[in-house]
Amino acid sequence: MMRLLKYDTRSLMQFANSARSTALAICAATCASALLVACQDDAPVAVAPPPPPPPRVEVVEAPKVASIKELMAQYDIDQRVNLPEERAPETEAERVAVLKFFDAFARGNADAIKPMLSAPDQFLLDGIVTSGGFAKSTGASIARIDVRCAREAGNSCTLAVFHVGEGFEPQLWSYTTTGSTPEFDSIATPPSIMDKLSGDNWIASWFEVLKLELAKADEPDEVPEMPKEDFTKEEEESQATSDDGSAPSSAPSGAPGKRMPGAPIKAPKPPGFGTK
């Protein structure tokens, strides 16, 4: 009996030890699992890097263009030259060229105008100066010069209306400022152009009027009418006479001396001037 109890006691101790080991193992596994979860919770979360900043756009400011008022004061432009700011060219070089060009007209300075003209216009200017017409129509004769500028058909153009006495003298020029000296080239002036300009853009209107005038100039002055005559009746009568073999009552016009078809042939006259 003691052995059995002793055996049972030993078995119980072994069982207890085994149970304790199992519990420790479970506890260890649980702790490890908890530590693993805790480590995972504490681990830093991977965050996507922020997108790169957009490329920096360099804003290039347009060069400041001096106003017409400033340029007129800087270059001592005659106050009779009137170029509104909203009608002025975009670049300062063009503004200066236009102001100086019409300032020379206001002052009657042909020597200042000539270098700025195209070769054909220089030749015309020489003739006007020689005849005295330039001195009469410029300088003190001008009360005001209204100027406006615009680009038309790819060209820089300037239109000026000269107030001379009671009348107006309009001019249209195309110009360039690419060379060392600006160059102005005159554009044809249609008759009574001031009465034909319309709309807000007079320069475009000028070119349209010029286009119509040139088209009209290509038309013939008069279309001649050729006289007509109906010969149908005479041809029908001639054909009818030929068909019945009788001679016509009168010889037809044209082809004198020729025998009509079907007419009798007369006997030839003997040689000489008389008859026998």
Description:
The chain is an alpha+beta fold and 276 residues long. The chain has a domain at 68-189: Nuclear Transport Factor 2, Chain: A (Roll). 42% of the residues lie in helices and 13% in strands. The protein has a 5-stranded mixed beta sheet with strand order 1-2-3-4-5. The longest helix has 41 residues, at 2-42. It starts with a helix and ends in a 32-residue tail after the last helix. 13% of the residues are buried.
Describe what is shown at a glance.
With 276 residues, the chain is of the alpha+beta class.
Instruction: Please name the CATH topology of one domain.
Output: Nuclear Transport Factor 2, Chain: A
Shape: flat
Report helical residue fraction: 40-55%
Mean pLDDT: 79
* The CATH class of one domain: Alpha Beta
In terms of topology, how is this protein built?
Layout: H1 2-42, H2 68-74, E1 81-82, H3 92-107, H4 110-113, H5 119-131, H6 133-137, E2 142-152, E3 155-164, E4 167-176, E5 183-186, H7 202-217, H8 232-244
Parallel strand pairs: 1-2
Antiparallel strand pairs: 2-3, 3-4, 4-5
